[in-house]
Design the sequence.
């Protein structure tokens, strides 16, 4: 087997190693065999995608990164995503800033598309999908990244997300619930481990509206995601404040516990299954259950809530179910949630740790959980190892019963063999890795580090330690440990066999690597192996020869160098404590303490010297950076002078522009006032003429009404006279008939009797009387004919008067024609005024183009200042590595930062002045538009006057028709229709 240790095979076990002779034969076989069996680690594709996105930010590169993250989200076996933020925090922060800017831009364009009606549904759907993908990527890379105080981009993102949440809650919900859930999730994840973000959110102007919106969401929905994310945000912001005491009362806390445990059990029913996200990145219900566990931990920051949680009825059954869910054949998502829950609840207090250990003993599941460290997905193995380290802790009394009786310990034998096999596989990875970055990105190496640490921790218990001694073939330690020296003697110093010791390989790398790399890398696997071997030496059943051999190996210079690197660790305090305890144990068990102390001191001093070299190199780089900073400060001073000059020129141009605007404004006001005066005069003239015409028309109408009434009266009299004449004619005819009858009778009487003669004379006298009456009637008839002739003469006089009125109406029509000509001149003047307004608009557009040119120049200055900011950012990253030893240099850098802040303030002031200039230009445009509206109103009034003139012309036509003898009733109806 190609590795540093040979594994002793127990009876019936597999052959897990090859002999020493075979190892030496492999070493003599030459370089060809080494190349054929070497394992070369591929570079991290995730880092490549991130660098590609930062170098060329576009939708295509963002889509490539999203597809890669989604692919590993479906495969669920990569630790690249899990440990990316922890291993590369600077790169992760740069990526978050880029994603934050992209999300803000997409969100603004999405809101504009949603408010406009011209965009198609396909465009809206594409923008919404791109926005969701960017937000999901931000969540993936933000959840484990220590942001601290948010940058400008992240701050803008938080403000936009808070504003969207407020508007959605106040408007009764969002059309896209998945978008609102993502917004809540983003705000919650940025608040998780970042106190600076919490301070930033609390200092927002709309923070009270934000709290109100979250409470509205809590009271208006039954959706588990809305409830969990809203309560998480409130718990992380106001739990320790007076508002938190009101929101998280005893009743509300109990409801929150009920919600969390119901979701963890998978029995929550909210009726919104159709709205569940199907994203390949945010796997449901994995991230919701993890969010519930985080909410539980956030609430448990209050001691009173911890006591309620400890007494809750569902803590024991849920913990027991999660312990049973962790096994080799378990589901990836269930195992992930279970380990997150157990790791979190153990950290809440010793009472919960004792509860977990008690349930492990009752259910006898520790060996099954240990098997999960060898899960096919190394990500699960790493997480399981970390969970076990939290559970085991330093308190051995609670864990002692887990390994008793001995039958339980024997169940761990296959797991220990598998862990040792993983460590052996990692040796080839260490030997063939070209850089520490690739080694840290290797899943095999990370997995071996974690499981080796778990095994070293378990070997503090005597039963497990005895089992490890039985499993590991310590008789081959001496040969394996010195194979490298044999190989060097047989070949040359550059030939490394695959069977070389892992500890010696990493110690050799520590001695040959660039000193600055020692500030970023620690041989964690070798350190844990040394801890493991040191714990194995405590076993009494180990024979003396093996113990002496192992003790001799642990006293070698390679091991002392490894312990020196652990002693100088600046990130893991637990590792330093274990190293000190290990050194104390070495010296206490040693007979020659000074000799052993000298060996340990040699390794510590060697590593310290390497660190000193790295520090000196870093100091020289810092001095060069300071020199560059001085030169950059001079450039900044020049830039400040140029900006001051540009500001001065801009102020002069602004003053000139303001003066020109004032002159144009005065001219425009004068012209407008003149036009208004002309319009008022014209309007008054038209109104006076219209009043005169209306009075004339009214008087003429009254006269015509009087004449019509007199004519009607005379016609009635004429009709009466005609009726009387017809009656008289009838009476005359009757009298003539009677005369004829009388004449006949008189003839008869004259013939018949002479006596009748006297009566005839009487009749003649009567006849004469009748004739006299007829003559009187004829005289009356002639007098009536004279009256009729007089009436006809009066009608002729009226006709003459109507002719006079017609001539007067013709004169009035001529005056109306003159008024139309005057209206035409006014329209021509209005066209001239519109032309002048168009010229003014062209002048305003030229001023706007000049403003745009000034803004482009300022943008170039801003880009140059951004370049300087990025250079200063790189300087800050280099200086922050050795921050504790370089306080004086940091003060100088802070001074440069203050100068840069002053420059930024001046730049912001310049931007504010430009914004004021744009506002004034907009006000000028508004004034021009108001004048256009006033002119349109004047045109509307002119049109109304024209309509009035048309009505009066129609009235004159009606008068003309009346004078020509038309029917009065038809004329009155036509006048009514026109009016």
Sequence:
């Amino acid at each position: 087997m190609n590795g540093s240790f040979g594994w002793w095979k127990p009876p019936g076990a597999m052959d897990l190693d090859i002999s020493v002779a075979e190892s030496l034969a492999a070493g003599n076989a030459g370089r060809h065999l080494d190349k054929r069996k070497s394992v070369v680690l591929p570079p991290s594709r995730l880092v490549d995608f991130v660098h590609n996105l930062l170098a060329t930010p576009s939708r295509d590169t963002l889509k490539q990164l999203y597809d890669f993250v989604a692919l590993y989200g479906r495969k669920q076996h990569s630790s690249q995503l899990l440990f990316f933020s922890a291993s590369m925090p600077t790169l992760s922060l740069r990526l978050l800033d880029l994603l934050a800017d992209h999300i803000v831009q997409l969100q603004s364009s999405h809101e504009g598309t949603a408010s406009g009606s011209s965009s198609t549904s396909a465009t809206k759907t594409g923008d919404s999908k791109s926005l969701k993908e960017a937000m999901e990527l931000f969540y993936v890379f933000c959840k484990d990244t220590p942001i601290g105080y948010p940058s400008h981009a992240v701050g803008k993102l938080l403000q936009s997300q808070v504003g969207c949440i407020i508007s959605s809650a106040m408007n009764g919900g969002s059309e896209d619930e998945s978008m609102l859930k993502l917004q809540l999730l983003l705000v919650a994840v940025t608040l998780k481990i970042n106190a600076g973000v919490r301070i930033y959110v609390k200092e927002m102007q709309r923070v009270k509206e934000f709290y109100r919106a979250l409470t509205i969401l809590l009271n208006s929905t039954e959706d588990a995601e809305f409830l969990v994310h809203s309560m998480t945000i409130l718990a992380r912001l106001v739990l320790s404040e007076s508002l938190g005491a009101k929101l998280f009362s005893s009743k509300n806390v109990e409801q929150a516990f009920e919600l969390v445990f119901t979701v963890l059990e998978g029995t929550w029913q909210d009726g919104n299954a159709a709205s569940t996200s199907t994203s390949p990145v945010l796997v449901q219900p994995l991230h919701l259950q993890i969010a519930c566990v985080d909410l539980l931990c956030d609430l448990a920051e209050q001691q009173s809530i911890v006591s309620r949680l400890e007494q809750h009825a569902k803590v024991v059954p849920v913990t027991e179910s999660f312990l049973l869910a962790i096994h080799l054949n378990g589901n990836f998502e269930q195992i992930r949630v279970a380990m997150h829950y157990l790791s979190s609840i153990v950290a809440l207090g010793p009472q919960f740790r004792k509860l977990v250990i008690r349930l492990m003993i009752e259910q006898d599941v520790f060996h099954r959980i240990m098997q999960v460290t060898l899960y096919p997905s190394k990500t699960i193995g790493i997480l399981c190892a970390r969970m076990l380290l939290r559970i085991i802790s330093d308190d051995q009394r609670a864990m002692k019963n887990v390994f008793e009786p001995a039958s339980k310990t024997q169940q761990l034998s296959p797991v220990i063999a598998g862990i040792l096999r993983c460590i052996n596989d990692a040796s080839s990875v260490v030997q063939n890795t070209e850089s520490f970055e690739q080694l840290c990105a290797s899943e095999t190496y990370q997995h071996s580090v974690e499981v080796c640490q778990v095994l070293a921790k378990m070997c503090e218990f005597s039963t497990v330690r005895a089992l490890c001694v039985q499993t590991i073939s310590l008789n081959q330690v001496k040969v394996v440990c010195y194979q490298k020296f044999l190989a060097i003697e047989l070949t040359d110093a550059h030939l490394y066999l695959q069977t070389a010791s892992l500890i010696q390989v990493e110690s050799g790398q520590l001695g040959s690597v660039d000193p600055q790399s020692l500030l970023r890398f620690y041989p964690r696997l070798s350190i844990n192996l040394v801890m493991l071997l040191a714990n194995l030496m405590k076993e009494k059943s180990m024979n003396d020869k093996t113990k002496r051999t192992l003790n001799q190996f642990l006293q070698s210079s390679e091991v002392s160098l490894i312990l020196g690197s652990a002693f100088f660790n600046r990130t893991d305090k637990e590792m330093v404590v274990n190293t000190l305890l290990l050194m104390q144990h070495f010296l206490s068990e040693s007979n020659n303490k000074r000799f052993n102390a000298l060996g340990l001191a040699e390794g510590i001093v060697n590593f310290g010297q390497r660190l000193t070299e790295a520090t000196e190199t870093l100091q020289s780089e810092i001095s060069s950076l300071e020199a560059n900073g001085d030169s950059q400060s001079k450039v900044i001073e020049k830039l400040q002078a140029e900006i001051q000059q540009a500001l001065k020129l801009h102020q002069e141009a602004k003053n000139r522009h303001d003066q020109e605007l004032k002159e144009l404004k005065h001219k425009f006001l004068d012209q407008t006032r003149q036009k208004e005066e002309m319009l008022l005069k014209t309007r008054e003239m038209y109104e006076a003429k219209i009043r005169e015409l209306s009075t004339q028309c009214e008087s003429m109408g009254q006269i015509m009404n009087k004449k019509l009434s007199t004519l009607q009266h005379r016609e009635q009299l004429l009709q009466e006279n005609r009726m009387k004449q017809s009656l008289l004619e009838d009476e005359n005819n009757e009298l003539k008939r009677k005369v004829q009858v009388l004449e006949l009778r008189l003839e008869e009487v004259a013939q018949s009797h002479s006596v009748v003669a006297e009566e005839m004379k009487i009749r003649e006298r009567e006849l004469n009387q009748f004739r006299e009456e007829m003559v009187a009637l004829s005289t009356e008839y002639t007098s009536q004919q004279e009256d009729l002739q007089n009436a006809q003469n009066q009608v002729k006089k009226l006709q003459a008067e109507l002719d006079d009125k017609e001539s007067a109406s013709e004169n009035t029509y001529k005056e109306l024609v003159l008024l139309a000509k005057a209206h035409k001149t006014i329209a021509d003047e209005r066209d001239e005024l519109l032309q002048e307004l168009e010229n003014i608009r062209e002048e305003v557009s030229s001023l706007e183009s000049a403003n745009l040119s000034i803004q482009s120049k300022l943008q170039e200055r801003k880009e140059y200042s951004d370049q300087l900011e990025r250079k200063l950012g790189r300087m800050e990253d280099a200086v922050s590595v050795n921050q504790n030893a370089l306080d004086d240099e940091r003060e100088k850098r802070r001074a440069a930062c203050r100068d840069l802040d002053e420059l930024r303030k001046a730049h912001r002031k310049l931007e504010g002045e430009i914004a004021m200039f744009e506002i004034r230009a907009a006000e000028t445009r508004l004034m021009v538009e108001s004048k256009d509206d006033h002119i349109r109103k004047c045109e509307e009034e002119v049109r109304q006057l024209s309509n009035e003139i048309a009505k009066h012309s129609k009235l004159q036509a009606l008068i003309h028709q009346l004078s020509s003898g038309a029917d009065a009733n038809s004329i009155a109806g036509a006048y009514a229709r026109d009016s």
Summary: Residues 20-39+470-609 form one domain. Residues 1-43, 474-500 have pLDDT under 50 and may be disordered.
